[in-house]
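look at this stuff:

>
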Amino acid sequence: MDTAPHPPLPSPCQLVDELRSTLPHFKQIQWLERTESTNADLLGMARASHGPQARPWLLGAHLQERGRGRAGRSWQNRPGANLMFSCAFDVFLAPQQLPTLSPLAGLAACEALRELIEPEHRGHLTMKWPNDVQWDSAKLAGILVEVTRAGASRLSPDHYVVIIGMGLNLDDARSLSLSLNRRVADWSEIARRDTRAATVSAAGLVAHVAQAWYTSLNEATAYGFDALPLRYAKVDSLAGQHINVLDDGRIAQAGIACGINRLGQLLLRTPQGEQSISIGEVSVRPRQEYAP
């Protein structure tokens, strides 16, 4: 994999200054040299009975010592090679709608990053359900969504705080691919092929994704999730693929992926009919393995 190194990250103070100028409606923006987990930090703030209440918040770190991914996985990172940040937003939704926020967050991030590259390359940037962002079928960014009660600032029974964390590979995809034994992508790889991507700063990447989350969550609160399946279809990396859905490492379902529904569930065509998948890890199968 031939990639160009991404420029070093600006200092935390520089990042905060740039982000405040592009995200003026965010009530609190911080960037740290290091922390254990930006998601955990924001969850603690949201649950606290004191401290800032007005949201949204954004917290990033050059290094997360205990960064977390989905299903309790750790997030491998080193300073300068990854862009790691989390945002906290107020949402007003029924409890049964909260799981839909995970695919919505992945979709919004994928759409936002597509806007930062030239149109002819946007088809290479896709989403793998439930919320991985991929470049040429290699993982570019992972997203973790967590929801908590709004604590002392709760305004109504349907008021929650959603924490969305993202780890985006800027550089070092080669070593990550070797250590994880699977191909990983980074933004430097995209920048080599796309002149527009090469001009985007670290703050620009963060701001564009954070704004997309903010807009999508506001739209979901106001209008619901009816538009979700059509939006997802435009970035779907699994459509028509023969896949296994794994639960704790074991195959729970197998079939052909055919989009998502308004609840954000993966739709799977199987010999028994269409199935709706709420949880699980997806593994793409070689076509010859599938037997209808």
User: Anything to note?
Assistant: The mean pLDDT is 89. The chain is about 25% helix and 30% strand. The first helix runs from residue 12 to 22. The longest strand covers residues 138-149.
